[in-house]
Design goal:
By secondary structure, this protein is α/β, with parallel strands linked by helices. The protein has helices at 63-74, 88-100, 115-129, 153-174, 200-220, 238-244, 269-276; strands at 54-58, 78-83, 105-109, 134-137, 183-187, 226-232, 287-290. It binds nicotinamide-adenine-dinucleotide and magnesium ion.
Length: 297
């Protein structure tokens, strides 16, 4: 593959083989995954679609958020990435790639499970980028639990705080800074439509994110601010090896999709670029599914 525009067979574009013999404690480090996920480091080619835009991406240290950060920078945007303090090694790598693209990178380590932290992250991003045009609410927590009786109150609370409350707090804090032409993009999931038995709390948050996106899009459209979502299917990231899935399910991760393999973060980035750019000026309240072919409502 030369770049994201190269025509090859999507079935074989990436290997379907993922070794199950790997486990990390939450949130996991991307650099320790086998195989290393493709973030588009050597393939994403920008064409100036986000020239001069200023973006905040949560969970921008790794996985989907990192692929989006690299793509946004190569499209001409300055990018602030938020991440958990223990993810500093992953974040450093992405900051360097943003800077290599000739753009400003802002690193914002913070746990987003409190309103204060979310407000501080937005304030820092606005301060260091000189404003804000794009916010990508992408940070997420996914821990599988087989039985509801074993789903602790603490986990339920933390999953909702990370996936839903943080999106609300961040968006509310960002809104006064977003002008007409700005874009809010939320990361939802196939789990919003086809929930797994072992991801009750997580799937609940992803359905909430879909509805939050649609409702807020109705409110903000008249201000020229577009709100949309991207719904990934099974994507190879650190989330999956840090108890997002049972370890013995990793072998077959993604193989139930019509394409027969897991997706790579690099395959998600173009959807976010589209929704952030002016090309999608008439796209509002939409959920773009990037899931290897699984039908959704
Ligand atoms: P990832 O682990 O690389 O990214 C998730 C990021 O969330 C972490 O890097 C971390 O920085 C951030 N995060 C988690 N808890 C946080 C907290 N308390 N405070 C601040 N940041 C926190 O994995 P990913 O798969 O790229 O996940 C990105 C998004 O994609 C998530 O919202 C996830 O739910 C969603 N998603 C992933 C898949 C998949 O199969 N990987 C499928 C559908 C949706
Ligand atoms: Mg990470």
């Amino acid at each position: 593959m030369t770049d994201q525009y190269t025509f090859d067979n999507p079935v074989t574009r990436y290997s379907k083989d993922i070794p199950s013999q790997q486990h990390q404690s939450e949130p996991g480090l991307e650099t320790e995954l086998t195989p290393t996920p493709d973030l588009g480091e050597s393939t994403y080619r920008g064409t100036g679609r986000l020239t001069g835009r200023r973006a905040l991406i949560t969970g921008g240290d790794s996985g989907i958020g990192a692929a989006v950060a690299i793509a946004f920078a190569r499209e001409g945007a300055d990018v602030a990435v938020s991440y958990l303090p223990e993810e500093e090694p992953d974040a450093r790598r992405i900051v360097a790639l943003i800077e290599e693209a000739g753009r400003t990178a802002v690193a914002l380590p913070a746990d987003l499970t409190t309103a204060e932290a979310c407000r501080a992250v937005v304030a820092d991003a606005v301060d260091k980028l000189g404003g804000l045009d794009i916010i990508v609410n992408n940070a997420g927590k996914q821990i599988y639990v087989e039985k509801l009786e074993d789903l602790t109150d603490e986990q339920f609370d933390q999953t909702l705080k990370t996936n839903v409350y943080a999106m609300f707090w961040l968006t509310k804090a960002a809104l006064p800074h977003l002008g007409a032409g700005s874009s809010i993009i939320n990361t939802t999931s196939i789990q919003a439509y086809a929930p797994s038995a072992i991801l009750v709390d997580y799937a609940t948050t992803k359905a909430s994110i879909n509805t939050f996106t649609k409702a807020l899009s109705q409110q903000l459209a008249e201000r020229g601010i577009r709100v949309n979502a991207v719904a990934p299917g099974p994507i190879w990231t650190a989330l999956q090896v840090s108890d997002g899935q049972p370890q013995d399910a990793l072998d077959e991760f993604g193989q139930m999709t019509p394409l027969g393999r897991a997706g790579q973060p690099a395959e998600l980035a173009p959807a976010y670029v589209f929704l952030a750019s002016a090309e999608s000026s008439y796209v509002v309240g939409e959920t773009l599914n990037v899931n290897g072919g699984m039908p959704t409502p």
